[in-house]
Amino acid sequence: MTADSVAKSDAPRLGMTPGHTVPLAAERLSIAAAGACLLLLASLHVLSPEFDPSFRVVSEYANGQYGWVLSLMFAAWAVSSWALAVAIWPQVQTRSGRIGVGFLAVAGVGEAMASVFDINHPLHGLAGLLGVGGLPVAAMLISPVLIRIPGWSDAKRVVLWTANLTWVALALMIVALIVIHQVTIVGYPNRMLVVLYCVWVMTVAGQAIMRRNESKT
User: Fold this and answer.
1) Contact 194, 37 (CB under 8 A)
2) Mean pLDDT of all residues in 177-201
3) Do 197 and 37 contact (CB within 8 A), yes or no?
4) What is the per-residue burial (b if ≥16 Cβ within 10 Å, else e) of 120-147?
5) 182 or 164: whose pLDDT is higher?
6) By the 8 A CB rule, do 132 and 113 touch?
7) How far is the C-alpha of 35 from the C-alpha of 199, rounded, in Å?
8) 61-76: buried (b, 16+ CB within 10 Å) or exposed (e) per residue?
9) Distance (Å, whole) CA 71 – CA 58
10) CA 155 to CA 4: how far, in whole Å?
11) How many other C-beta atoms can be found within 10 angstroms of the C-beta atom of residue 1?
12) Which domains does the chain have, with CATH numbers?
């Protein structure tokens, strides 16, 4: 099932009232935090080159000298998810959309937990389950709702493409880990997952800002 198909049953209930304005600060914070997450991830490749990105997952940077940078990365990731949840909550008026925002908030909880409980902690697995598993569900529920709101139709392609790429990234990592049992290549899908998750967040937040600017003209 693709993201586009989720919205059809909710179409009659869509709409925005004039009072439902999206907090601009939350939109900008979401983009800034997601960008910071990606920059911090990139910096870890320079700061800790001993961790081969082909087979060492992102969480293993906690075992190096710059574990604090990894913690900041996860914290920024959490902030980006929570800020986006705040930003789009007024716009999603369907049950599926509200559930999606809930999953986005849960994903933020997982990402925040990962900043505190590193790969050596028993709760890191739960953090991964919430963060890695929650965001694709959120993207697949939220995106089709947003594109059916008046003013969002022009963003349909980019929003749906980035939404579907979140679960594709998750599927590729699962295939690398479980299906073909190739630990030697799991590092790349793991990093691609972080990048594509952040890309979806930045895309939705950016489109929300564009819709806001267009409504003023």
Assistant:
1) yes
2) 86
3) no
4) eeeebeebbebbbebbbbbbbbbbbbbb
5) 164
6) no
7) 9
8) bbebebbebbbbbbbb
9) 11
10) 13
11) 6
12) 24-216 (1.20.1070)
pLDDT band at 215 (very low <50, low <70, confident <90, very high): low
The pLDDT tens digits for 83-137 are 999 999 998 989 999 999 999 999 999 999 999 999 999 999 999 999 999 999 9
CA angle (213, 214, 217) in 5-degree steps: 95
Q: What is the pTM of this model?
A: 0.87
Return the pLDDT at 181: 59
Annotate 110-175 with DSSP letters as a single string: HHHHHHHS-TTSTTHHHHHHHHHHHHHHHHHHHHHHHTTSTT-GGGHHHHHHHHHHHHHHHHHHHI
Task: Give residue 20's identity as a one-letter amino acid code.
Answer: H
Please report the pLDDT score of residue 55 as a whole number: 87
Give the span between the Cα atoms of 74 and 112, in whole angstroms: 6
Its sign, for the CA torsion 13, 14, 19, 20, is positive
Provide the token pair at 202: 């930045």
